[in-house]
Amino acid sequence: MAVPERNHNLLILFLVLLVNDALCIRFPDRVARPALDSPDQHRLRVAVFALGSFWRSEAVFGCLPGVVRTTVGYAGGSKSNPEYRSLVDHAECVKVEYDPELISFRELLDAFWSSHDPRQVYGQGPDVGNQYRSIIFVNGTEESRMASVSKEQEQTRSRSSIVTTQILQLGTFYTAEPEHQKFELKQNNILLQLIGNLPAEELERSSLATKLNGYVAELCPPNIQKRIDSKINDIIKKGWPILRDL
Ligand SMILES: *[C@@H]1O[C@H](CO)[C@@H](O)[C@H](O)[C@H]1NC(C)=O
Q1: Residues with CB under 6 A from ligand 1
Q2: What gap in Å lies between CA 117 and CA 97, rounded to an integer?
Q3: Does residue 246 lie within any of the structural domains?
Q4: For residue 219, what are the domain limits?
Q5: 151, 162 in Cβ contact below 8 A?
Q6: 91 lies in a domain?
Q7: How far away, in angstroms, is 232 Cα from ligand 1 center?
Q8: CATH number of the domain where residue 27 is located
C-alpha cells in the first residue's frame, strides 16, 4: 500500500517522539530560547497566590497575556526551608512574574477568584489540608487595599458562606523542589520534546514552558488555547526533518 509522503513523515515523527526518552534529543539554544524570555526584566512585578494544589495554580496563571513566568513554592508559614513532605504551616503557592503594562494586579485577582472556591474550608477540591488554603499575598498598602476590596466583592456574591481567603503581607517565598515546577507540562512528553527537552533550571525560567503548562491543563483563555492548538498542529503537519542519505 502506498503511504503518502506526508503521512509517512508524520508516522516517523511519532516514532521519534515515542522513543524520545531513549534518544534524549537536544535542540540548539536558538530554538530553546524564544524572544519572550528576554523582555525588559526590570519592569516585571511579582504576585504570589495560594489557591489549592500548586500544580494547578501554576497552570491557572501561566497562559494569561502579560504573565512572563510562574514558579511554585511555599509561603505563608513560619517554618524555615519547608519541603513538600514537611510544610508545617506553609501553603502551596504560585509566584507570578508579570508585566504591569500588559496585565494588572486587579486582573490577576480576578483570575485568582474565578479559579478556585474560596469558601471551601481546610482544602480545595479533593485536596484536604492546611497547605491548600486560599491566600492573597500583598506587597504594600495599595495591593493590600485592592485585595481587601476584591475580597469584599467576592463575599457579596454569596451571603450564605464565608470567603475564607487570607490576605497576608508577602514574606519569604521558598521555591519548591524541581519536580513540582511545570508539573502539568511534564505530563506531556511531546510538548517537552517540541521545546527542546530543557534542563530543569531552564524549564523553570522559560516563558514558553510557562504558557504550555497552562495549555496542557487546558486552563488558557479559550482564544489562546485555540491559537496554541493550531500552532502545534501546524508543526506536526509539516512533519519532521528526516535524514535520508549521506
Ligand atoms: C515590593 O514592592 C517594592 C516597591 O514596588 C519592590 O521594590 C519590591 O521588590 C517588592 N517586593 C517583592 C517581594 O516583590
Answers
A1: 46, 139-140, 170
A2: 23
A3: no
A4: 5-238
A5: no
A6: yes
A7: 37
A8: 3.30.1060.10
As for how many domains the chain has, the answer is: 1
**Which of 49, 99, 139 should be mutated for ligand 1, with most atoms under 8 A from CB?**
139
- In tens, the pLDDT along 74-101 reads 999 999 999 999 999 999 999 999 999 9
pTM of the model: 0.82
Element (H, E) at 237: helix 222-238
Rounded distance from Cα 150 to ligand 1 centre (Å): 21
Ligand 1 centroid–CA 138 distance in Å is: 10
Rounded Cα–Cα distance for residues 67 and 46 (Å): 10
CA 6 to mean position of chain CA atoms: 34
Torsion of CA 197, 201, 207, 210, to 10 degrees: 80
- pLDDT tens sequence across 132-174: 999 999 999 999 999 999 999 999 988 889 999 999 999 999 9
Using CA positions, which residue lies closest to atom 14 of ligand 1? Answer: 46
Give alpha helix (H) positions in 49-130.
Answer: 54-62, 105-114
The answer to whether the CB of 51 falls within 8 A of the CB of 42 is: no
